[in-house]
């Protein structure tokens, strides 16, 4: 974390009246059914349908690069906007030190004139599809497990004339050395090629660290000619057909044989052309489908924001994974999605604090391969790190700089008082390596990668700790960036309590270093206590140090050090500390809501998710204006939601540990430590069951979700009951690849009907109530998109013919049935007809028919949107607290005259 400017409190902004709120039809949800599949050990989910409700949709062209939609294949990414046709800035995770320098711009100068427009980011397929009228479709896709992406054009009008595809760079003379590169000159130079195979631009070809890249393109399915326009622009002139594909790559030198990115680019493009568009698209979709099917999350708070919070979960997962499969991890600010040319910040290193926010959720979501990429940055540099530790500290041990370059260098740390005396980073890196073993059961990784790192990080602390009699203490270090050179920084005390017992346990398991364990245990037994005052933890021993940054370091023992949480002897102390923290949601890397979840504070956790999005999600593509980071608030959103649904950090499986009050409905399949794929569902304050798929045959320990109610553990394959208990926890042996169900004896899983979770495609804008945060862009004309109201009583759509009274008479969605649901904050909304941009009202606040005839929102345009908890909503007029109804379920006008909810007050919101 790297803030150097004062922390400013962000003011909450009201949602602009021009935004529409689209809430797709919910997944099947009922208190009488369950989606658990005992055969697969996971929830039954129609992923294609369910995830379509989280598509990001632009219903009018976006010309702002900063709002460009994001599409990536795991190594290469692009942000796409509408300028001179279709334009994108391309980047790759392995192109430059810390991913600092982006690849360049790709501009397809096709005809975009159209009366209708829609651009859709399909998270499930990983594609970005733009439709112009009904005769042109442009699909951006990727080739899986490569650096290649493509733009496929279907144009039923037939080919005529030519179109240009340009690859270009910005003014390279302005490029600054923000990445600590040894040769800036090579990054200010570009070389080109143009021949019968395609065109390309190369940079960084003389980088001593073997970084650099070639951005190149070719065409499949249409003829083309190639030319060099100038030193930073090359062009393909394409003779279009009805269906053709532009393939492009950001080929990195570090991944190229002989570091020859030019030849690598040629080879990659030739290979993808050989495979062909159709097969590549199928392979790409299958790659993303397989990715999503490893876990599942449904998080419904019962309010209007449920869908939004869940949408961000899936969008953030996509955006991180889209760059997460390279040789280097997604840099917290550079990533693979940028439209700021080569302008960036904090690019001289990877700050562990920020990187952990981006990555630490992915163990629970069953993507340990992403975490391994993050871990590899540190494990591959073990030798360099130990050598520097010997030079700086004179010990054969391991110190890890908080700000570390790609090769393990500490130049960004030792020159900064903010980070040069942080000692706890090595523990965090070692712990994440240990967790890789806990989630994957990879004993080779534990012995050859994790344990050497753990042992040397422990040895560093042994050499740095001082003694006062029998007590060990840290005489002077930084309590992260906020308190400098203090005694007993709580981060160090937590690090010792975390890592030393792990070292003892792993060395015993592996049969190594038995002579070291007594010394390690002595430190564990005699480490100084955490500093406290008035029932709360302090960041360090008194006296209070000057505050240099805005971190709540006193909460680090809660997360990510995993030393306290629900059910611990010091839980109340930790909760008091959380309540008194002095930097609530202080910047884009804040993790308060994860710590709230760990402490069982469900309402605070969900409020924190909203707060972080309100403050930092500023663009309709999910991105931020905050210059201290980009991807941290997205990654930490994932961790907060996962930790609210499942916790397993203390060798106990705990489901729904931090759910908010009210009509919460949650469903998930997530991974617990020791390889337990855990599924559960909760609705109407009732947890239905706990399903466990044991991947490795470890001992399972489950906290009883029903308190002291009698539960039983049943093996699903033969329905054998293994144990019955009323205890607060149950432990049982498991066999690998076997499914178990923990259920109430009085209401077992068999009491629920079987169902499959599904959803309906989003087609409009979503908004976070009481904030300026939105996802998607609405129609420029007011037609299309929007939301239709579907009356449950007679299966009719609500309509207002020619501006007349609203009635429920249409069997299909038409122009007058589309509304903007404008969020006014406080749980209230207004309805605005898309046909005439008029607000729905009933004059004189009586029982008059509802009509669409007012230009601005007034009392009769303000409705409370009531969630009925069964997938429907009701509308209640705030002026007289009456529900909107139409008597007798006929085609009568809608009015507001009923005090209680009946069938005519129940509507489904349908994307239109």
From TrEMBL:
<dbReference type="InterPro" id="IPR054363">
    <property type="entry name" value="GH95_cat"/>
</dbReference>
<dbReference type="InterPro" id="IPR008928">
    <property type="entry name" value="6-hairpin_glycosidase_sf"/>
</dbReference>
<keyword id="KW-0732">Signal</keyword>
<feature type="signal peptide">
    <location>
        <begin position="1"/>
        <end position="29"/>
    </location>
</feature>
<dbReference type="InterPro" id="IPR012341">
    <property type="entry name" value="6hp_glycosidase-like_sf"/>
</dbReference>
<dbReference type="InterPro" id="IPR008999">
    <property type="entry name" value="Actin-crosslinking"/>
</dbReference>
<dbReference type="InterPro" id="IPR013780">
    <property type="entry name" value="Glyco_hydro_b"/>
</dbReference>
<dbReference type="Pfam" id="PF22124">
    <property type="entry name" value="Glyco_hydro_95_cat"/>
</dbReference>
<protein>
    <submittedName>
        <fullName>Carbohydrate-binding protein</fullName>
    </submittedName>
</protein>
<feature type="domain" description="Glycosyl hydrolase family 95 catalytic">
    <location>
        <begin position="298"/>
        <end position="534"/>
    </location>
</feature>
């Amino acid at each position: 974390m790297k803030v150097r400017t004062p922390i400013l409190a962000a003011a909450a902004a009201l949602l602009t009246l021009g935004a529409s709120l689209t809430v797709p039809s919910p997944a099947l949800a009922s208190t009488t059914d369950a989606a658990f599949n005992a055969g697969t050990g996971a929830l039954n989910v129609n992923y294609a349908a369910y995830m379509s409700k989280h598509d990001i949709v632009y219903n009018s062209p976006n010309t702002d690069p900063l709002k460009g939609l994001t599409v990536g294949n795991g190594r290469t990414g692009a942000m796409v906007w509408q300028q001179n046709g279709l334009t994108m800035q391309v980047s790759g995770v392995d192109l430059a030190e810390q991913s600092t320098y982006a690849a360049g711009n790709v501009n397809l100068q096709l005809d975009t004139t159209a009366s209708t427009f829609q651009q859709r980011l399909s998270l499930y397929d990983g594609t970005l599809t733009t439709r112009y009228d009904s005769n042109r479709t442009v699909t951006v896709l990727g080739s899986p497990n490569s650096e290649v992406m493509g733009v496929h054009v279907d144009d039923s009008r037939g080919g005529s004339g030519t179109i240009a595809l340009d690859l270009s760079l910005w003014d390279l003379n302005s490029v600054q050395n923000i990445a600590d590169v040894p040769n800036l000159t090579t990054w200010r130079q570009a070389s080109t090629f143009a021949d019968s195979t395609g065109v390309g631009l190369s940079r960084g070809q003389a980088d001593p660290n073997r970084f650099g890249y070639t951005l190149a393109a070719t065409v499949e399915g249409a003829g083309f000619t190639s030319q060099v326009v100038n030193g930073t622009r090359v062009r393909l002139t394409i003779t279009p057909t009805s269906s053709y594909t532009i393939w492009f790559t950001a080929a990195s030198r570090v991944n190229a044989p002989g570091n020859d990115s030019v030849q690598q680019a040629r080879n990659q493009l030739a290979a993808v052309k050989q495979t062909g568009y159709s097969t590549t698209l199928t392979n790409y979709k299958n790659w993303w489908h397989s990715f999503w099917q490893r876990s599942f999350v449904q998080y419904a708070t019962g309010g209007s924001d449920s869908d939004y919070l869940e949408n961000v979960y899936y969008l953030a997962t996509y955006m991180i994974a889209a760059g997460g499969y390279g040789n280097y991890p997604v840099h917290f600010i550079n990533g693979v999605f940028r439209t700021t040319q080569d302008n960036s910040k904090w690019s001289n290193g990877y700050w562990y604090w920020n990187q952990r926010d981006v990555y630490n959720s992915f163990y629970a979501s069953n993507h340990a391969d992403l975490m391994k990429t993050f871990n590899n940055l540190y494990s591959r540099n073990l030798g360099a790190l130990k050598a520097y530790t010997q030079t700086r500290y004179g010990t054969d041990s391991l110190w890890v700089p908080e700000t570390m370059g790609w090769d393990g260098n500490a130049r960004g740390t030792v020159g900064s008082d903010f980070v040069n005396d942080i000692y706890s980073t090595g523990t965090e890196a070692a712990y994440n390596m240990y967790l890789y073993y806990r989630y994957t059961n990879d004993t080779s990784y534990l012995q050859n990668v994790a344990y050497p790192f753990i042992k040397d990080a422990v040895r560093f602390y042994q050499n740095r700790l001082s003694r006062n009699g029998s007590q060990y203490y840290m005489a002077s270090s930084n309590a992260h960036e906020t308190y400098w050179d203090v005694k007993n920084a709580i981060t160090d005390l937590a690090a010792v309590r975390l890592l030393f017992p792990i070292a003892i346990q792993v060395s015993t398991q592996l049969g190594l270093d038995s002579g070291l364990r007594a010394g390690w245990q002595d430190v564990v037994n005699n480490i100084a206590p955490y500093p406290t005052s008035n029932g709360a933890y302090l960041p360090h021993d008194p006296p209070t140090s000057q505050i240099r940054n805005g971190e709540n370091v006193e909460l680090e023992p809660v997360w990510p050090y995993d030393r306290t949480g629900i059910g611990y002897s010091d839980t109340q102390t930790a909760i008091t500390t959380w309540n008194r923290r002095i930097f609530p949601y202080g910047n884009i890397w804040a993790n308060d809501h994860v710590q709230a979840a760990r402490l069982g504070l469900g309402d605070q956790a969900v409020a924190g998710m909203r707060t972080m999005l309100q403050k930092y999600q500023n663009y309709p593509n999910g991105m931020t204006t905050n210059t201290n980071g980009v991807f941290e608030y997205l990654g930490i959103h994932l961790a907060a939601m996962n930790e609210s649904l499942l916790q397993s950090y203390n060798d106990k499986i705990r489901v729904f540990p931090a759910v908010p009050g009210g009509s919460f409905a949650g469903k998930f399949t997530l991974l617990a430590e020791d390889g337990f794929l855990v599924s559960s569902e909760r609705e109407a304050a009732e947890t239905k069951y706990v399903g466990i798929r044991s991947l490795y045959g470890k001992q399972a320990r489950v906290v009883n979700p029903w308190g002291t109610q009698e539960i039983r553990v049943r093996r699903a394959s033969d329905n054998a009951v293994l144990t019955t208990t009323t205890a607060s926890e149950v432990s049982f042996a498991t066999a690998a690849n076997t499914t178990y169900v923990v259920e109430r004896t009085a209401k077992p899983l068999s009491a629920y009907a079987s169902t499959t979770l599904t959803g309906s495609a989003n087609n409009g804008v979503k908004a976070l109530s009481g904030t300026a945060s939105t996802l998607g862009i609405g129609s420029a004309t007011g037609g299309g998109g929007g939301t239709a109201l579907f009356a449950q009583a007679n299966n009719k759509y609500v309509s207002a013919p020619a501006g007349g009274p609203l009635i429920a008479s249409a069997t299909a969605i038409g122009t007058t049935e589309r509304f903007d649901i404008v969020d006014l904050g406080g749980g209230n909304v207004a309805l605005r007809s898309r046909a005439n941009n008029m607000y729905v009202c009933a004059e004189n606040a009586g029982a008059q028919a509802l009509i669409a005839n007012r230009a601005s929102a007034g009392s009769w345009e303000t409705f409370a949107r009531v969630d009925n908890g069964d997938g429907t909503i009701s509308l209640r007029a705030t002026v007289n607290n009456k529900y909107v109804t139409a008597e007798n379920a006929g085609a009568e006008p809608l009015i507001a005259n009923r005090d209680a909810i009946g069938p005519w007050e129940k509507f489904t919101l349908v994307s239109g």
